[in-house]
Amino acid sequence: MPNHLLLRESGSQPINGNFCFHLYERQLSLEGIELNVNISDVVLKTFTNSSKNITIGGASKPVDCFSKYRVNIVVPYRRRPEQLRVFLHYLHRYLQLQEIDYRIIVVEQSPEMHFNRGKLFNVGFVESQKRFPSDCYIFHDVDLIPLSLNNIYACTKMPRHLSSAVDTFDYELPYCGIFGGAVAITSQHFQSINGFSNLFYGWGGEDDDLYFRVSQAELGVVRFEKNVAKYKMLRHEKEVPNPNRFVTMKKNKIIHAVEGLNNLNYTMLSYELKSLYTLMRVHL
Ligand code: BGC
């Protein structure tokens, strides 16, 4: 598995000291970071105060070695504070154990329109590339919790579907083109497929469309074994599926090349460096 992982941007070398020995080389386990699915504001505050190695904006990197992997993690968000607390409380500890050089970026959509997951990812990508560019992106839902430390949060040569074994699907793929939840892709690949579609307002379809874009570009998709790609989905009410998504998907098969990152428009409402994440509030 490790051989598939891409090292951080070429040319980067540790100035002093050595590259980290990552988990697969050290055989560590998740011990010590059990998942708590009820995290109050107070608990999160205490966690923040005790997390000396997380810099404002929700970035962190190992202190005594140079990480081989650098990644921006983009999380689309609206009105799920309980889940965001659980996610941040768990993921920071998880990524630090993996010795990743990372930043968590939350892109929050204003209330007027239906939620547009794909467009929020596009905004997160474009804005992050301006401010703290990375060669590797992970597009991640807030309700998904990785359960194996061997699921290294880094890019592979081919786009990777990280969350291919989710508990709510009995750890099976419901269909072979499923590409939602958490996906890792290089910036170069993401740009080459023109990002996500901007057209999917409401639940569903944008991830299937991304799979189509990746397939059209013949990039291939990689998934790690089930025991590595295991996730827990946090409980929430099921969203109402967008009934138009199939029509949009069909149309997109023709227009995908001209619709996506290249015609993205949005209004940035605010940009804030929170203690545990970078927050971008946007109107779509
Ligand atoms: C939707 C996808 C979703 C999948 C699994 C499909 O019908 O179009 O967006 O990820 O179901 O829930």
TrEMBL record:
Pathway: Protein modification; protein glycosylation. One of its GO terms (molecular function) is N-acetyl-beta-glucosaminyl-derivative 4-beta-N-acetylgalactosaminyltransferase activity. Residues 35-156 form the Galactosyltransferase N-terminal domain. Its main location: membrane. Gene3D superfamilies: Spore Coat Polysaccharide Biosynthesis Protein SpsA, Chain A. Keywords: Glycoprotein, Glycosyltransferase, Membrane, Signal-anchor, Transferase, Transmembrane, Transmembrane helix. Transmembrane segments: none annotated. SUPFAM superfamilies: Nucleotide-diphospho-sugar transferases. GO terms for cellular component: Golgi apparatus; membrane. GO terms for biological process: carbohydrate metabolic process; glycosphingolipid biosynthetic process. The keyword Transcription regulation does not apply. InterPro entries: Galactosyl_T (IPR003859), Galactosyl_T_C (IPR027791), Galactosyl_T_N (IPR027995), Nucleotide-diphossugar_trans (IPR029044). It is found in: Membrane. Residues 160-237 form the Galactosyltransferase C-terminal domain. This is Beta-1,4-N-acetylgalactosaminyltransferase bre-4. It comes from Daphnia pulex.
